[in-house]
Structures
1.
Amino acid sequence: MSGDPARHPPPPSRTPTSYDVAQRAGVSQSAVSRCFRPGGSIAPETRARVLKAARELGYQPNAIASGLKAKRSNLVAVLISNLTNLYYPEVLAGLTRQLNARDNRVLLFALETEDEVDAALDQVWRYRVDGAIVAARLSAPQLRAFQRHRVPVVLYNRWSDGSDPVSSVCCDSPGGERMLVDRLLAAGHRRFGLIAGPEDNTVGRSRIEAARTRLEQAGLTPVVAGGSFDHDSGAQGFRRLMMANDGAIDAVICANDLMAIGAIDAAREDFGLDVPRDVSVVGFDGVGPAAWASYRLTTVRQPVNRMTEAAVGMLLERVADPDLPPEVRTLTGTLITGASARLG
C-alpha cells in the first residue's frame, strides 16, 4: 500500500471507493472500513489520514452495502396513525432522533386510520427492516406475522389485542384520566360530558372508558359525544353535549388536547361561556398549543422523551438478541394544572 497516493487517483467517470481511499491514505481497505464503522478500532493518526483522503476524493461509505455485509438493513419501520393529532409529530421526531443517534434510519408508514395496518405491513416485509415500532393497533394475526418474518416489534402507546405477549411502551392513560376526574370531582363538578376519539383508536377509547368508569363509581352518568381527535370534532362534540343536556354541563373531559381546544373555542364563541368559571375543560397529551396563553389547557403531559427512548432501546436490544423475552413498560404522565379547569 506504500507509494505516492497521487499516482492512483480514481477515474473521474466513477464514484470513489474504499479501495481508492486506502490507496490515497496508504492504508488497508479494512482500516478504511473500521474508520467508518461505529465503534471501529483504529489509531487516531490513521483515522485522520483516512478522513483526509476521503474528503479529497469525495468518498462516502455505502450504508446499504455495509448493512448487507453485516446482514442488517439499519432500517426501522415506524407505523404511526392519526397524524392530525399534534402529539404524533413530536413522537415521530423523538423516534427519529433516537434511532439516528444509534446509526439507524426510519422507514415511515403514515396511516390515516388504524385499519390500514395490513396494507402497510405488506410494504414493511419487502424492505427487510431490522425491526418496527408501531403506534397503531395490531391484531393477533398481525403480531404473528412479525414473528413469522422474524422482525422484532415494539408497540408505542399501544398494547397487544391478543394473548401472545409483545413488547410495548405505554403512558398510563387510564391512570391519568382517573387523576383528572378525581380532581374535577373534588372541585364540585357533577354534570360531566366526555368527548371521545375515533372508534378504532385504542388509546382514546381507554381514556374515555377510564373516565366514565370513575364517574360511574361516583354515582354519576356522563354524556358522551364522539370525536376524531381534531379541533372541529372537539367543537362539534361540545355543541352536542350542550344540546343533549340542555346546557347543563359543568365539566368536559376530552380524549386529547386538540379536541379540548376545539371545545374551549365552541364554549366561548357559540355559547358565550367563561372557561373555567362556567365550564371546565381538560384534555390529554400536553401538546405545544395547549400551553398557548389563550388556552392554558389543563391536561396530562405524556413523557414523550422517555417513551421514545425506551421504545428505541427495547427494540434495538431485541434486534441484537432476538431471544430476549417481551417487556412492557408503563410510564406515568404529568398533570399540567392550566387555566381551563377548576380543580380540587
2.
Amino acid sequence: MAQIIEVDCIKQMSWTTKTSYTASNIITYNIALGVDGTDLSLCFEGHPNFHPLPTFGSLPVIAIMGDVTRSMAKFLPKFQAHNHVHGEQYFELIRPFPTAATLETTAKVVDIVDRRSGVTVCVGIWTRDASTGQDICYNEWTSFVMRVPGAGAASKPIQRGAKTASHPAPSRKPDAVVEQKTSPEQGALYRAASGDLNPLHIDPAVAKAGGFPGPILTGTCTIGMGVKHIVDTFANGDTSRFRNVKLRLSKPVFPGEVVRTQMWSENGGKKIIYRQLAGKDKVVISQAAVELTDSASSRL
C-alpha cells in the first residue's frame, strides 16, 4: 500500500486491453440509449449509413477503467473501491467507428489533484483500430476517490483546454429542452450493452448497501442520452458532426425518472452548453458542453 502519492512514477504506468464488437453490439447500444427501432441507420446493419451513436466510444473506456481501478490500491494511500466514483468525463471522436472491429485501448494517469476530502484521478484513454492502427477516439475519465490523503498530489488541475474546461449554464432560458423517460428495462439493457456489470445498476440490495434507495442508471448512459439529444436537436441527427463533449456527473439518475436535457446554442451553433436534470429539478449532469463541426467533411 502506498504511503504517499508519487505522481511522476504513477504517470509512467499504463494499461492496455483489446475489445471486439460487431453490428449486434452497435444495435444493442443504440437501442439502450432510446433509439427508435424504426431508425434503420442506427438499428439495421444492412442500411448504407449504419453506425453507432458517438458515445459508443465509452464502451472500451468502461472495460479498461476496471483495470485502472483495480490498480489504484497500489498507488493511492488508503484506497477503498467503494469510495471511488465517476466525477467528470471528456470524450473526443477522431474518426467514425467501423461497423465491426477489434479495438486496442491504452490508459495512462494524466493528473492527480488533492481535493481535501480525497483526490481526483484523471485517466487519459486512447482507443485505436487494432487492424489499421488508426486512432478513433480519446477519453479522459476523472474519478473522485474519497478519503485518500492528498500528500504528493497537485494542488490544482493541469489546464488542458477543452479537456478541463467548465461550462456553467447561461442565465437565459434554454434554446431547447428534450425530455426522455428512463425505465428499469433501459437500465438493465444499457448495463448489458455497455459491459458495465456493476450490480449497483440492477440489484436493490447492493444499491441500498451503497446508500441509495434503489439501483442507479449507469452514468455513461445519462451522458449518451444527452449527447443524442443535442445531435438530434442541433445537427438534425447527423452524428458525424459530433466533435467532443466535456461534463461533470453531479448526481445519479434512478430508472423510471424523466431526464431533461436543457441546451443553449453558442458560437453559431458550434458549441452547445447543456445540463441534464431528473426528478424534481435534480441536476445530474452539469458544467457540460458539446462541440459540433460545421459539416461531416470538416472532421480530421
